[in-house]
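ARCHIVE CARD
Drawer: 12
Card no.: 0347
Subject: one protein chain, sequence and derived structure
Cross-reference: see card 0346
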Amino acid sequence: MSKPTEVFPTRYSNNSQDSNLVLDLVFLQPNLSEQNNHYIHPDWRLTSDHASISVDILIAKEHILTTKWVLAKNSKEEDCFIEELINFIKNLNTNSILDNNVLEGIINSLAINVDNIWHKHSRRINIMKHFKAW
């Protein structure tokens, strides 16, 4: 729940006999400590009968990928990747899976080898706005 940093009315009555009210509605992510306070700005209302409410939202630095690994469809590299992957899967020893630890070891081995085979046959390209670099 967001709490104001200072308590001010958010709605100012046009009728002098009515009292000013606090009517505020702020949608924030629950339990996010960085955003559990909002600010009421009575001096920003000018001719409006409502005061503005603001929240500071932190923007985290984000890493945006500029490259990716690709494998051209119907290429020699794709054929080699598929062939090597099929051979690896055929040769997996699954006869002695007696408990979860053995199964987890086989799955981890599969994941590591798929990744290695992928990187062996794929190539890294730069992600650009246009499909081809002109």
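Annotation on reverse: The two ends are 52 Å apart (CA to CA). The first strand starts at residue 3 and ends at 4.
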